[in-house]
Amino acid sequence: ATRVEVSGSDITLTAVPIDSIHAISGLTFEEDNGVVTVRARAVVSSFLHRGDLREHFTANEKVRRIVLNGQIIWDDGAPVSFFTSQVFQTRHDFMGSMPDNMRTAEALSMSRYLGTFTNELQTSEKPYVWKIIFEKKVPENEKAVREDDMERFAYVLLGLIGNLDEVEYSYTVDGESFTKTVTAEEATAFFGRNIKDCGKSARILGDLLSKTG
């Protein structure tokens, strides 16, 4: 776990072990164009190393982002949660790559909340559409809640996949087929700013994740 304070180019970082067995033995800092990369090393607690470790670092320019052991912990003026960092790192420019799309869906645990699904992509002309086809029927008494969840997941997908224009869901309720389409314009209206900004900043993505719940 971490506690981080940033003022301009100055960083104060405290790394905290998650149990009493371990201790933080070292923190190293590197910087590149406002991005500070920190590596923390944990060891078994001993008389040489006990508990947490607090270090100060002054960068050569204003700090934009801090990455600790591969995870973004601070970005664009605010701390970033582990979940937000994990999801943000799946961002990609082109929705035509289904493996990349699924990395984002898996980071969001979409199938856990919405159910298992198959996929179709419309990439021959705009709008570029990711069609998500649910394998199991949606109970009638869950339709409204499930549609609300579909919208919220779509907002995040549209924010993280650069050229994705629409997410279309296909599902059945009591034998009747339904489709639900969510556009990038609708996602922007919900968020109150360009939804594609989420692919530029983990902090902005964190704001969207908070708003979608």
Indicate the topology.
Layout lengths: L1 E6 L2 E6 L6 E11 L2 E10 L8 E6 L6 E4 L2 E5 L2 E2 L2 H7 L9 H10 L2 H5 L2 E6 L6 E6 L8 H18 L5 E8 L2 E8 H8 L10 H11 L1
Parallel strand pairs: 4-6, 10-11
Antiparallel strand pairs: 1-2, 2-5, 3-4, 6-7, 7-8, 9-10, 11-12
Shape descriptor reads: elongated
Which structural class should the secondary elements be placed in?
alpha+beta
Question: What topology, given as strand order, has the largest sheet?
Answer: 3-4-6-7-8
Q: Rg from C-alpha positions?
A: 21 Å
Helix content: 25-40%
- How many DSSP E strands? 12
Major pleated sheet: 5 strands, mixed
Written as H for each helix and E for each strand, in order along the chain, the element string is: EEEEEEEEHHHEEHEEHH
Amount of beta strand:
35-45%
SS field, number of helical segments: 6
Low-confidence stretches: none
Mean pLDDT: 95
Distance between the termini: 23 Å
